[in-house]
Protein backbone atom coordinates (compact mmCIF):
# COMPACT_ATOMS: atom_id res chain seq x y z
CA UNK A 1 0.00 0.00 0.00
CA UNK A 2 1.30 3.42 -0.94
CA UNK A 3 1.31 5.52 2.23
CA UNK A 4 1.92 9.21 2.83
CA UNK A 5 2.15 10.49 6.40
CA UNK A 6 1.76 14.20 7.21
CA UNK A 7 2.49 15.78 10.58
CA UNK A 8 0.70 18.92 11.82
CA UNK A 9 1.87 20.71 14.97
CA UNK A 10 4.03 17.67 15.66
CA UNK A 11 7.68 16.93 15.02
CA UNK A 12 8.10 14.33 12.24
CA UNK A 13 8.99 11.01 13.81
CA UNK A 14 10.31 7.97 11.97
CA UNK A 15 8.88 5.76 14.74
CA UNK A 16 5.34 7.02 14.11
CA UNK A 17 5.81 6.78 10.34
CA UNK A 18 7.01 3.17 10.48
CA UNK A 19 4.28 2.28 13.01
CA UNK A 20 1.58 3.60 10.65
CA UNK A 21 3.11 1.88 7.61
CA UNK A 22 3.41 -1.47 9.42
CA UNK A 23 -0.22 -1.29 10.54
CA UNK A 24 -1.46 -0.31 7.08
CA UNK A 25 0.50 -3.12 5.40
CA UNK A 26 -1.76 -5.56 7.23
CA UNK A 27 -4.72 -4.07 5.33
CA UNK A 28 -3.36 -5.36 2.02
CA UNK A 29 -4.93 -8.75 2.74
CA UNK A 30 -8.40 -7.12 2.63
CA UNK A 31 -7.78 -5.24 -0.62
CA UNK A 32 -7.55 -6.96 -4.00
CA UNK A 33 -5.85 -4.09 -5.82
CA UNK A 34 -3.22 -1.55 -4.77
CA UNK A 35 -4.52 1.25 -2.59
CA UNK A 36 -3.30 4.64 -1.48
CA UNK A 37 -3.40 5.85 2.13
CA UNK A 38 -3.12 9.46 3.21
CA UNK A 39 -2.48 9.87 6.92
CA UNK A 40 -2.53 13.12 8.87
CA UNK A 41 -1.23 13.04 12.45
CA UNK A 42 -1.75 16.25 14.41
CA UNK A 43 -1.67 17.63 17.94
CA UNK A 44 -3.99 20.35 19.25
CA UNK A 45 -3.21 21.26 22.85
CA UNK A 46 -3.51 17.88 24.62
CA UNK A 47 -5.51 16.09 21.87
CA UNK A 48 -3.71 13.71 19.52
CA UNK A 49 -5.64 13.34 16.25
CA UNK A 50 -5.16 10.63 13.64
CA UNK A 51 -6.95 10.97 10.28
CA UNK A 52 -6.78 8.24 7.64
CA UNK A 53 -8.07 8.30 4.05
CA UNK A 54 -7.78 5.06 2.06
CA UNK A 55 -8.56 5.21 -1.64
CA UNK A 56 -8.46 2.21 -3.95
CA UNK A 57 -10.10 -1.05 -4.93
CA UNK A 58 -13.37 0.84 -5.63
CA UNK A 59 -13.39 2.03 -2.02
CA UNK A 60 -12.98 5.42 -0.42
CA UNK A 61 -12.78 5.08 3.35
CA UNK A 62 -12.16 7.80 5.90
CA UNK A 63 -11.56 7.61 9.64
CA UNK A 64 -10.66 10.04 12.43
CA UNK A 65 -9.90 9.57 16.13
CA UNK A 66 -8.88 11.85 18.99
CA UNK A 67 -7.25 10.64 22.21
CA UNK A 68 -4.54 11.62 24.68
CA UNK A 69 -2.04 9.20 23.08
CA UNK A 70 -1.08 9.19 19.38
CA UNK A 71 -0.45 5.42 19.20
CA UNK A 72 -3.87 4.75 20.76
CA UNK A 73 -5.53 7.12 18.28
CA UNK A 74 -3.85 5.30 15.37
CA UNK A 75 -4.96 1.89 16.66
CA UNK A 76 -8.53 3.06 17.23
CA UNK A 77 -8.92 4.60 13.78
CA UNK A 78 -7.42 1.50 12.13
CA UNK A 79 -10.00 -0.67 13.91
CA UNK A 80 -12.73 1.54 12.48
CA UNK A 81 -11.25 1.36 9.00
CA UNK A 82 -10.99 -2.42 9.16
CA UNK A 83 -14.69 -2.69 9.99
CA UNK A 84 -15.58 -0.32 7.14
CA UNK A 85 -13.50 -2.26 4.62
CA UNK A 86 -15.00 -5.60 5.67
CA UNK A 87 -18.51 -4.16 5.47
CA UNK A 88 -17.89 -2.71 2.00
CA UNK A 89 -16.38 -5.95 0.72
CA UNK A 90 -19.33 -7.93 2.07
CA UNK A 91 -21.76 -5.63 0.23
CA UNK A 92 -19.84 -6.13 -3.01
CA UNK A 93 -19.90 -9.92 -2.55
CA UNK A 94 -23.66 -9.87 -1.88
CA UNK A 95 -24.31 -7.79 -5.00
CA UNK A 96 -22.25 -10.16 -7.13
CA UNK A 97 -24.00 -13.24 -5.76
CA UNK A 98 -27.40 -11.62 -6.36
CA UNK A 99 -26.45 -10.99 -9.98
CA UNK A 100 -25.21 -14.54 -10.49
CA UNK A 101 -28.30 -16.15 -9.00
CA UNK A 102 -30.64 -14.13 -11.22
CA UNK A 103 -32.32 -12.05 -8.55
CA UNK A 104 -32.15 -8.98 -10.75
CA UNK A 105 -35.44 -7.17 -11.25
CA UNK A 106 -37.41 -7.92 -14.39
CA UNK A 107 -37.59 -5.09 -16.93
CA UNK A 108 -40.90 -3.70 -18.15
CA UNK A 109 -40.50 -3.14 -21.88
CA UNK A 110 -43.19 -1.04 -23.52
CA UNK A 111 -44.30 -1.63 -27.12
CA UNK A 112 -42.16 0.31 -29.56
CA UNK A 113 -39.26 0.63 -27.08
CA UNK A 114 -35.88 0.76 -28.78
CA UNK A 115 -32.90 0.55 -26.38
CA UNK A 116 -30.09 3.05 -26.78
CA UNK A 117 -26.93 1.55 -28.19
CA UNK A 118 -24.69 3.22 -25.62
CA UNK A 119 -26.85 2.68 -22.51
CA UNK A 120 -24.02 0.91 -20.63
CA UNK A 121 -26.41 -1.59 -19.01
CA UNK A 122 -25.58 -5.20 -18.42
CA UNK A 123 -27.46 -8.16 -19.82
CA UNK A 124 -28.06 -10.72 -17.10
CA UNK A 125 -28.96 -14.16 -18.40
CA UNK A 126 -31.21 -16.52 -16.48
CA UNK A 127 -32.69 -19.89 -17.30
CA UNK A 128 -36.42 -20.44 -17.00
CA UNK A 129 -38.39 -23.67 -16.86
CA UNK A 130 -41.52 -23.53 -18.98
CA UNK A 131 -44.49 -25.87 -19.16
CA UNK A 132 -47.02 -26.58 -21.91
CA UNK A 133 -50.31 -24.71 -21.28
CA UNK A 134 -52.93 -22.52 -22.92
CA UNK A 135 -52.58 -18.72 -22.80
CA UNK A 136 -55.67 -18.55 -20.54
CA UNK A 137 -54.02 -20.93 -18.05
CA UNK A 138 -50.84 -18.84 -18.21
CA UNK A 139 -52.88 -15.74 -17.23
CA UNK A 140 -54.33 -17.65 -14.25
CA UNK A 141 -50.79 -18.73 -13.21
CA UNK A 142 -49.62 -15.12 -13.54
CA UNK A 143 -52.49 -13.95 -11.29
CA UNK A 144 -51.40 -16.45 -8.61
CA UNK A 145 -47.78 -15.25 -8.64
CA UNK A 146 -46.05 -11.92 -8.00
CA UNK A 147 -44.14 -12.14 -11.27
CA UNK A 148 -44.56 -9.68 -14.13
CA UNK A 149 -44.45 -12.35 -16.84
CA UNK A 150 -44.63 -16.09 -17.41
CA UNK A 151 -42.88 -18.09 -20.13
CA UNK A 152 -44.66 -21.21 -21.37
CA UNK A 153 -45.06 -23.54 -24.32
CA UNK A 154 -48.36 -22.90 -26.05
CA UNK A 155 -50.12 -26.28 -26.06
CA UNK A 156 -51.96 -25.44 -29.32
CA UNK A 157 -48.99 -24.25 -31.38
CA UNK A 158 -46.19 -25.99 -29.44
CA UNK A 159 -44.16 -22.77 -29.55
CA UNK A 160 -42.70 -20.71 -26.70
CA UNK A 161 -44.92 -17.76 -25.66
CA UNK A 162 -44.80 -15.09 -22.98
CA UNK A 163 -47.76 -13.61 -21.10
CA UNK A 164 -47.03 -10.37 -19.23
CA UNK A 165 -48.83 -7.75 -17.14
CA UNK A 166 -49.26 -4.43 -18.88
CA UNK A 167 -49.18 -1.09 -17.08
CA UNK A 168 -52.84 -0.50 -17.94
CA UNK A 169 -53.91 -3.64 -16.01
CA UNK A 170 -54.44 -5.84 -19.07
CA UNK A 171 -52.29 -8.77 -20.18
CA UNK A 172 -50.02 -9.02 -23.19
CA UNK A 173 -49.12 -12.13 -25.18
CA UNK A 174 -45.82 -12.41 -27.03
CA UNK A 175 -45.75 -15.04 -29.77
CA UNK A 176 -42.99 -15.82 -32.28
CA UNK A 177 -43.66 -14.96 -35.92
CA UNK A 178 -44.39 -17.98 -38.07
UniProtKB/TrEMBL annotation:
Any one Gene Ontology molecular-function term assigned to this protein's record = ribosomal small subunit binding
Q: Which positions, given as ranges, span the membrane?
A: none
What Gene Ontology cellular-component terms does the record carry? cytosolic small ribosomal subunit
Localization, UniProt: Cytoplasm
The alphabetized list of GO BP terms reads: negative regulation of translational elongation
Question: What keyword terms does UniProt attach to this protein?
Answer: Cytoplasm, Ribonucleoprotein, Ribosomal protein, Translation regulation
The principal location of this protein is: cytoplasm
Stored PANTHER family: 30S RIBOSOMAL PROTEIN
Note the HAMAP family from the entry. HPF
Name this polypeptide is given: Ribosome hibernation promoting factor
Annotated source species: Desulfonema limicola
What is the taxonomic lineage of the source species? Bacteria, Pseudomonadati, Thermodesulfobacteriota, Desulfobacteria, Desulfobacterales
Encoding gene, per UniProt annotation: hpf
